[in-house]
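Structure ticket #2291
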Amino acid sequence: MPTCVVRTVSAPNQFNSPNLQLGVSLSIDCGDPTGTRTDELGIKWIGDGDYINTGKTAKVQVNNSYHDEVQTLRYFPYQKKSCYVIGGVNRGRKHMVRAHFFYGNYDGKSSPPSFDLQFDGNPWGSVTTSSSESYHREVIYAPKRDNISVCVAQTSPGQIPFISALVIREFEQGMYETDGTEDFLLLWKRRAFGSEDLVRFPDDPYDRYWRPSDEIDGVVTVARDNMSFIKNFTDIPGLALAHAITPASTNATTLIVPSSEMGLGNYKYYYTFYFLEVSQAAYHNKSRSFDFLVDGIKRNDDPIIPPYGTYVSDYNHGRNLTAGSVISLVNTANASLPPILNAMELLELIKSGLANGTNENDVNTLKVLQSQYQQVQLWAGDPCLPLGFTWDWLNCNTADPPRVTELHLSGLGLSGTLPDFSGLTALEIMWI
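Resolution: structure written out below.
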């Protein structure tokens, strides 16, 4: 088996971006419980009141040019973790979940917090905010149940978690496939090399962010010679392929992907590099032909010859790279022009990392309790996971899946007849 795969797309997917029929497609403006609006890109934003029962809302105080969806936020001063829950998702289908954070000195303390981010009972990462910058985190995975939960969790006293916006998109079947259903992907970098502007919706129907590359020494930007019709593809919007970088010297035979554009660490990566010929004449003359090397080792079987009007990609669904890894494109003997690179998608691959979640019978029993008592409706997401972040009024064991072993209901002000707890078959202690 080849160690990587070069894929040629023979025909574009004419998805006519705004009209593509998507599955779950939600853009939630956190901190605005009931508002609904359509932004300048045509994205419909909805309030967050139907997806969370806890937290307080606020507006940022810092004047900035960021989009309206990060001008409000929801913060959580009381619970250990606070969760949004989005129902009606297709389990087993790949989804993108993107969480946005802009502190904007909403509390007047000029003290941007740090906290943890979680999804479906899985640790997602730590969020370190700033007073002036907006941040986002993106994960791609296939939910194991028919809902998605996104939680922020307090990890240090005085560090109050918050969230500004939440975006969820279901991908078309076959996108972002991994070897295992337990795998998930964390966005590292997504680049449209040579582009002057961010490429996103409506050019990308999933509203992925294809960011322009920074200025790079020793390379120049080349643009497609016919911009009148940009074709879109299932995996990538055509506008992200309309430009490319290539060595400044036409005599150069090697293009090294700048380390500053990848920002690699010592992780396993899922990557795709995209190549499309921008010059029709160069394509007809077969002027470009190159190999794809990782740390000096050739990873393609056949030479990469960028097509015109469509693209070829070199991808790998799980390669260990290091902070010092070098990815280079090296001309074959018959090439007369240097290599080009149009776009790149680089994600960290977490193998077999998805949690199974708390036992479903236990979860369903807790839902009955919550439906009866408003006092316990503030808690959502996975009751037991991640480890160390159970709901405040219960304890769990460490089985897989975990089971609820203790309920601490005294002090919550519950009255009347409690529901049947026989579904909690691992319950050992209950305080009422």
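Closing remark: Helices lie at 259-262, 280-284, 360-372.
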